[in-house]
Amino acid sequence: MRFETYGDAAETLLFPLGYGNDPDHEHVRWLLDRLAERYTVHVGVLPTDMTDFEADYRRPTERYATGLDVDAVLSHSTGGLIAAHLPLSARRVYLSPWWGMSFDALGTLLFPLVRRLPVRFRLLPTGAEASDLGDLKSPDESAEDADFVSPAFISEIHRAQSTLPAFRPGSVVFCSLSDRVVSVRAVGDRAPVESVRLYDGGHEFFSSSGREAVLDDVLAALRGGPRAVQGPGPTG
Fold this sequence. Notes:
This protein is of the alpha/beta class. Helices cover 33% and strands 17% of the residues. The two termini are 32 Å apart.
């Protein structure tokens, strides 16, 4: 993993990004610039060729966090899967966490076979369109090597999803019911309703119209937890 730092505020925010996200992307940078007005933001950029969740994702993030005095943890998508496994006491806010697979009927049938293939080559298309991520997202705003994943990647993600620790009280999850990238049901199965904040948009709130209003709630949640966002309900 690669780590970068933005801002120089007194409070420290650890922020593992989602798969394929990069600080150079327009809408990711929009979010980082605003977070950096209040926090020193330590951003974790995920390698796209992961074949071992612990070695490639969780342990590097945990080692990096050990040297910080972390006040809060923000995470997005795959980063939310990593953050859920970290043994940190800081408040956590999850943006569309990848806690479960999202499949159509054919994908559900093929998944058990695919994840057992001993293949590390990235030959499986992710299937995510720019419109699934947000209405502001341009098709060229993604990592060049993030369009395909390997069966080994899928197997490791599924293993990490299957061994998630219990949901930590005081955490907040932001998600959209129209998310086609990750399983919204997995969020509902893990997080109590009072800890879930819905918004109108795609998988990336920061690439969706109405993101300014959602960001206000994200910042409030980082400071005050579930009570700060007035419970579930669409916004933006």
